[in-house]
Amino acid sequence: MPRLLILSATLLTATLLSTASAKTEITFLYGLGGELGKAIESMIKDFNAAQNDVTVRGEFANTYEGVVQKALAGIAAGQPAGDVMQLEVAYVPRIAASGALVNLKALPGFQTSFNAFWPVFKTQVSREDGAVYSMPWNNSNPVLYYNPELLKKAGLSAPPRTYPELRVAARKITAATGVPAIALSSFPWVLEGAVWSNGGEMVDNGKLLLDQPAAKAVITDWAGFFRDGSAVLQSPNTRADFAAGKVAMLMDSVAGRPGLKASVPFKFGTAPLPYYKKPVVPVGGATLGISKGSSADKQQAAWTFIRWLAQPQQQFTWIKMSNYVPITRTTTNLPAYKTYVASEKGLEIGGQQLSYARPRPSTTGYVQGTQEIIKSLDRIFLQDAPIDATLSDLVQRTQPLFKDTK
Amino acid sequence: MPGALLELLRAAPYLLPALLIFVVFTYYPLARVLYLSLTDADMLSAPNWVGLANYRQLLADREFWSSLGITAVFAVGVTALEVGLGLALAFLMNARTRTQSLLRGAVFAPVVVSLAATAVIWNYLLNPNSGPVNRLLEGLGIAGPGWLSDPQTALASVILVAVWKGVGLPAVLFLAGLQGLPAELEEAAAIDGASRATIARRITIPLLAPTTVVVVFISLIGTFQSYGLVLLLTSGGPAGATNLLGYSIYQNAFVFFQMGLASALSVVLFALLLTLGIIQLKLAERRVHYQ
Question: Using CA atoms, how far apart are residues A378 and B74, in angstroms rounded to an integer?
């Protein structure tokens, strides 16, 4: 009998010990490929090597849409596609509303982590009811990239700071060089900043406000660039055109720097995003959410991973690889970060713009509304569609999409 | 037990695996899409029955009609070019020349190129500022258009890329059809003094009618369902100029989460293809001369 007891006790102890030391394996579903995908895998590797409790397995979903598609399939199947998911900010409200994401506020150490973020990111992830379903991670804001040689040919020694300056500069550049001065986008990211900087709003009170004076003035001004031949529509070819000296300026994500550096054969300049009345920039990017369908230990492991990624040292490592902006003030204040941005001229602008940044609208209808905005702006910019009528029609057409917006 | 029933029972074990695959992967999804089209499904919450609301929304939406028109132009354009070019290429590939093998390989090669690679190649070739096509035109003193970025030329450009990618298959089908034709008919016509053009017009092409029906049918179905090329080349733009029904279904389902509406669009597309298929079969029965 005593032998049996000893054997049972030994087996029980061994089982408990093995359970205690077993690593929790979680899946991180992400949507960035190429160099950024490699950077994510590198971060995962670092995390797995840095501790003994959690093993993260990265799963590439091709795009942000791919993450959502897999997440939806997982929700439908009752089996989460990923324990941690990289969710583009605009998709979070809808997925959270379905109850598929964990409210992170209830998790240990939330407030400490949350307080460290720049205010713009706190606003970005906070819902109206106070819940927080995702944490900021890879965020950026747009900057102005320019070709100093082409500006010089037009007699310009510095990039334009405001849109009125940009308008004048654009005409000079096109006249002096024969190439379009700027690539403007119908995708409304940069437009959001321009409208806000002109004192307007994109969406409010359940309605798209692009037919209101402040927004209409911006769109009219932008249409002017196209009508006098100093702008082209931004497309997947724009970066190649910029590299080939076929367009003098473009407004794009600060996280686009590594790609530009690799492809542009000349020393390009980076400047803050132009503005109308006051500087405002939109921040975009993705946040990290935890699947509610994951088991409690996986949720805890996922939370450990998310908090680790937000630590200043990991942030700095991530920024060096990706050129995304720092999400916490502590990262911005790291001596190593300061030294790094001093050596990477232009990179600091993304961080500096955070003090006047605003999160992109993320109401449920805005994702679909965005597609309608793109079509309408394409028609105005490329087909000379009448501005007033097109914007009124756009607002009217998108009205049902914003019916849930408070 | 009647003989027919006995035969069916004997055949059942052999048919069952294939039948099971069809039921699980074709008939069930079809029935499910039909059901979802009558709901407000969004994959995030349980679908609610909305009756014909999705169909009413579609019929009242001018973007749907515009998309239908664009899809029709795309389908007819691609099919017409694939049939015409495919036939011409088949004649060339059938001719005994030194470059016969090379030509056959070159014509079929784009068919096996992946869609993503096709998009990368053509995005580069058709880049309005630095692409080789416009550079060539520039050398000839012609200002090239913004192929994929100009609403006037985007659909035509996508049609051309689709034809480049797809023409190899009809060409090979026509080639097989040509090689299956009885040589004596053409020889008899030649002895009677018919020119090569007359032989082609009066004998070869009519005899190829069964192949033509297959090619038209395959091409129309493929083009009506097409969305990948548009997704990669233009994302339905600029100004919605390339917003094919297939792309619209993808966008509603996986970008806007409107699975009910996307299902309704799919049912409309299915009905459209079914109608086209029936018309085509009826026409074929009357007009095609099978050997």
Answer: 21
Q: Report CA-CA distances (Å) from B232 to A245, B103, B237.
A: 25, 28, 11
Quote the distance between the C-alpha of residue A239 and its chain's center: 19
User: To the nearest whole angstrom, how far is the Cα of A278 from the nearest Cα of chain B?
Assistant: 31
> Which pairing describes strands A203-204 and A207-208: parallel, antiparallel, or unpaired?
antiparallel
CB proximity B128 to A under 8 Å = yes
**Domain containing residue A394:** 142-282+360-402
Counted domains in chain B? 1
In A, minimum Cα distance to B255 occurs at: A65
A198 and A262 housed in the same domain? yes
**pLDDT tens figures, B121-172:** 999 999 887 789 999 999 999 988 989 989 999 999 999 999 999 999 999 9
| B256 touching chain A per CB within 8 A | yes
Q: Same domain, yes or no, for A381 and A273?
A: yes
If asked whether residues A93 and A240 sit together in one domain, one would say no
Q: CA B98, B102, B106, B107 torsion: positive or negative? A: positive
Whether A206 and A262 map to the same domain: the answer is yes
- Cβ(A75)–Cβ(A358) below 8 Å: no
| Token duo for residue A172 | 């000079």
Spatial distance between the Cα atoms of A103 and A99, rounded to a whole number of angstroms = 9
Per cent of chain A over pLDDT 90 is 72
Burial B107-120 (b: 16+ CB within 10 A, else e): bbebeeeeeeebbe
Question: Residue B291 burial (CB < 10 Å; 0-12/13-18/19+)?
Answer: exposed
The single-letter code of the amino acid at A117 is F
- Joined together, the tokens standing for residue B66 give 């515009």
B291 interface with A at CB cutoff 8 Å: no
Exposed/middle/buried for residue A316 (C-beta within 10 Å: 0-12, 13-18, 19+):
middle
Three-class SS of residue A345? coil
ipTM for this prediction = 0.78
b/e burial code for range A47-75 (CB count within 10 A of at least 16 → b) = bbeeeeebbbebebbeebbbbbbbbbebb
Hey, which bits of A11-150 come out as E strands?
24-30, 54-60, 84-88, 134-140, 142-146
The b/e string for B156-175 (b: 16+ C-beta within 10 A; e otherwise) is bbbbbbbbbbbbbbbbbbbb
E strand or H helix that includes residue A203: strand A203-204
Q: pTM for the complete prediction?
A: 0.84
